Amino acid sequence: MRKSFFYNFFFFLAVFLSPLKTWSQSYSFTTYGVEDGLPYIQIYALFQDSKGYMWSGGYGGLSSFDGQDFVVYNPKDGLSNHWVTSITEDKSGKLWIGTIDGLSVLKDKKFTNYFVSSNLCGNYVNIVFKDRNGKIWIGTEKGINFSENDSIKKVAASLGFNVKSLSMDTDGNLWAGTTKGVLKFSSDGKLIATLNSSNGLPTDNVTVIRQDAQGKILVGTTNGLVIMNNDFSGIKIFSVTTGLFDPSVTSILVDFKNNVWIGTPTGLVKFNGNKFSYLQLNDEINSNKISTLQLDYEQNIWIGTFNGLFKFRGEGLVNYGPADGLKHPFIYEISGDKDWNKWVCTESGGVYFYDGINFKNYGLREGLPGVKVTTALDLKDGRTLFGTDAGYSVLTKNRFENYSVETGFNLTAVNTFFKDSKGRIWAGGKNGLAYFTEKGDKTKKFDYTYFTLPTDIEEYDVWSFTEDGNGNIWIGTYLAGLYEYDGKEIKKFIPAGDKKSTSFLEMAVVNGKHFFGATLEGVYYMNLETGKAKYITEEDGMNSDLTYSLMVTRDKKTLWSGTNQGVNKINLEEFLTTGKVDLVAFGKTEGLRGVECNSHGFFEDRNGEVWIGTVNGLSKFNPEEYIPNVVKSKLNLTNLKLFYNDTILADNSELPYYLNNISFKYIGICLTNPAKVKYVCKLEGFDQSWSPETSDNFKTYSNLPPGKYTFKVKSCNSEGIWNENLIAITFTILSPWYTSWWFTLAVVAFFIAVIMVIFRIRLNQEKKRQKAELQTQIEISKNELKALRAQINPHFIFNSLNSIQHFIIERDNTEAARYLNKFAKLFRMILNNSEKSTVSIREEVDMLAIYLELETMRFQNKFDYEFIIDEKIDPDYEEMPTMLLQPYIENAILHG
After folding, report:
1. Residue 11: which of 26, 179, 272, 21 has the closest Cα?
2. How many CA atoms lie within 13 A of 146 on its CB side?
């Protein structure tokens, strides 16, 4: 009991008296726990893969983090054990995971496991490590393995050692930290040298080994930090007595500035080569029990603890609050004295004096007339003025002297002080303003010159002053507008533009002519010589238009603006030179404890550090430690859906026409501030231009017509730097089969066939109709012919018999016989043709020739005749109705 007491006593005595240590300020840490999706709170392994995902392993499995969501893997998914100890990635993108019971390799969401039966030295894997050549080394509780040609091989010289850490130096040597000291191997696994407690280490139990940018070997043990050369020379041991806050080193990280970050069971330690600084993650004990550290691509430090995962952006932003002694965090103006100590004015706690170490409060008990202090002005002669809600106070040698309406000072409250180039001290307050001038006697009191503003507004507050290059004093108010005092009178100034701001809560003039004002419509800029004006607003990247404070740094390179959503760091040089607005916005996600600012809430100290007052605390921005995020986001296509069903779509895929509802999900991994990642996308073949910037990381296209498309997407990081290495995936939606050329041709052919069939049917019907009509007509004609024949034949026969009779009477037997012979022949032809509707023209002509011979004989050659047939007519082929011409010829003979 006594031994434990003395050990703890001397431990804390050494910590507090060590000249090489400094205590931390309240740095900003982003915390991830079970409520954020992390599957465990005890984290033993961290690793960022080539795609940007942050992998963590702990007592509960494995998870990947893209800045928004955690994806969890455990033994149900194939992981060899739920307790993950180490993670790395090989050149092919496979993830190697060490567990307390085997080695797992993850590829395409499938695990392959290795155990002692697979030639592992031991199943308890402490460390998996990829060297500079891409070779995978595995440290187990019984020795070292390495992967070669898809097989696990052993390092013979390591057998029997419990290997906790592996590292490779710039010469290609492999270093192993074990429970029996340090082992140094050649690249082919031959043991070169050993180091343990017998020849330089404070203990044999080595937990971690790293090499810094200068080639120094860093060895973490359970009893201190060792820094030495590659050849084991120059050994330096750091422990509690030499500045290390906790001798038990669990992890080591070297950042891009070659600072050494050390994880311990009691917190995070930074070593810059000269001194140690202690950083407490939060007030919970397990949160400071650090097991592993990881530096990501964007220079964020990730910290695995026994109480979740922490992210640390760096020491660029420090917060102060009740834990630091600032018990009233609603901050107004921050001012400095001649020694650059700070005066911090608060809403309800008076004023705080900060000497760089401690906050000292001044309130009612110390003599202030009220607890609301809005402004402070150090006169550099031992006096400091404070504006309060009851007038103003002068602090001299820790003694306050108060001035109010009761003592002859006409302003009921003072919101701001300003000292002009003539030495006048201007005070703005409720419904008026005044300037102070020294009385010139030993009392060091002031005479007052009062002003009221030419406005119809009954109630107003003066909140700010500034002076231009001509010595004119500009007066800003809340809701009553902007005014200019030229030494003779105060005139209201109407800002150019259509916004017509009525509130100017803080102002500044650069180079005598560039006017800037904090308004509720943004930062108002005006060139006092040309009258050119512009507002810097949310459209330019500001986190809000409601601007309460602003400040120009001494080097005139930066304009700071404070809003109700944080602060904005504007590149003033760029703006005044080109008119371009280049800014970085800071809010809660960037580490500000409070985001809503107040008037006069900026102060630049002698080191160029910017102090920021908010409604929830005081922050300090260190430009030397600030890490701008110049790393482009790593863009990944994470999911693709067809009609809301997950799918894998290879580039240049062809999709059937009915799969024309497609959704893309993607992530631009920017772990610094995932909420500020923006995306633009375009579907070539459908969209005419890129989409507007949005934080949505998905896009759906519905009812796409057939065609070839290329989906493109790109992302920017937290500071608006775009990654031009966009994702592009090409696919084709095929036309429906019923719109294909062959189907169209078939349909056309079908309709043509149908039309032809219909036409043929109609044609046949028409032919049948016409044939029927013709047949009817023929029958009619036949009947007519028969009737005609019935009329002609008797008449003709009668005439022929008369002629024969004539020849007999005249006793011309020869002619009578010839006539009778021809008559018989004609009669036979008529009888043969009487049943025919038509006969050939030749037959008709032959018959007519006999008939005409008979008539010629009857009329004794009193007429001649001739048959003329057109050459185009074939008399043997063409036909005509029988006996058609005979009546006409007979009538011609009779009447001719």
Report:
1. 21
2. 19
Is a pLDDT exceeding 60 seen at residue 13?
no
The dihedral of CA 753, 755, 761, 766: what is its sign?
negative
Which pLDDT band, with edges at 50, 70 and 90, does 10 fall under? very low
Q: What is the mean pLDDT of residues 607-632?
A: 94
DSSP 386-451: EEETTEEEEEETTEEEEE-GGGT---S-EEEEEE-TTS-EEEEEBTEEEEEEE-SSTT--EEEEEE
Q: Which helix (H) or strand (E) holds 791?
A: helix 741-809
Separation of CA 24 from chain center: 36
- Which single residue is written with the structure tokens 């199943």? 123
Task: Tell how far CA 52 is from the center of its chain.
Answer: 14
Q: Give CA–CA dist 96/276, Å, rounded.
A: 34
Question: Are 599 and 507 contacting, i.e. CB atoms less than 8 angstroms apart?
Answer: no
b/e map 292-324, b = 16+ CB within 10 Å: bbbbbbbbbbbbbbbbbbbbbbbbbbbbbbeeb
Burial of 531 (0-12, 13-18, 19+ CB in 10 A): exposed
Residue type at 268?
L
Quote the pTM value.
Answer: 0.80
Instruction: Classify burial at 195, counting beta carbons within 10 Å of its beta carbon; exposed 0-12, middle 13-18, buried 19 or more.
Output: buried
Q: How far is CA 182 from CA 140, 190, 197, 208, 209, in A?
A: 15, 14, 10, 10, 9
Parallel, antiparallel, or unpaired: how do β-strands 522-527 and 514-519 relate? antiparallel
For 298: left if phi > 0, alpha if psi spans -120 to 50, otherwise beta; the answer is alpha
Domains of the chain: 1-32+171-279 (2.130.10.10), 320-621 (2.130.10.10), 634-736 (2.60.40.10), 782-895 (no CATH)
Rg (the chain; Cα; Å): 54
> Exposure pattern of 391-415 as b/e (b: 16+ CB <10 Å)?
bbbbbeeeeeebbbeeeebebebbb
Beta-bridge partner residues of 634:
669
Strands laid side by side in the 653-655 sheet: 653-655, 727-733, 707-715, 679-684
Contact 144, 176 (CB under 8 A): yes
Alpha-carbon distances, residue 9 vs 4, 269, 308, 403 (angstroms): 9, 21, 30, 52
> By three-state DSSP, how is residue 651 classified?
coil
The answer to whether residues 401 and 393 touch, using CB atoms and an 8 Å cutoff, is: yes
Mean pLDDT value across residues 193-222: 96
Count of CA atoms in the C-beta half-sphere (13 A) of 532 = 7
Question: pLDDT tens across 287-323, in order?
Answer: 999 999 999 999 999 999 999 999 999 999 999 999 8
Q: Is 157 exposed, middle or buried (0-12, 13-18, 19+ CB in 10 A)?
A: middle
Cβ contact 184:196 at 8 Å: no
Q: Identify the bridge partners of residue 3 per DSSP, sorted by sequence position.
A: none
At 420, give phi and psi (nearest 5°). -90, 180
Find the mean pLDDT for residues 362-384: 94
Q: Residues with Cβ < 8 Å from 577, sequence gap 6 or more? A: none
CB 111, CB 104: distance < 8 Å: yes
Single-letter code of the amino acid located at 717: N
Between helix 841-858 and helix 741-809 the angle, nearest 10°, is 20
AA letter at 393: S
Q: How far apart are CA 758 and CA 762, in angstroms?
A: 6
Mean pLDDT of 875-895: 82
Q: Are 143 and 177 in contact (CB under 8 A)?
A: no
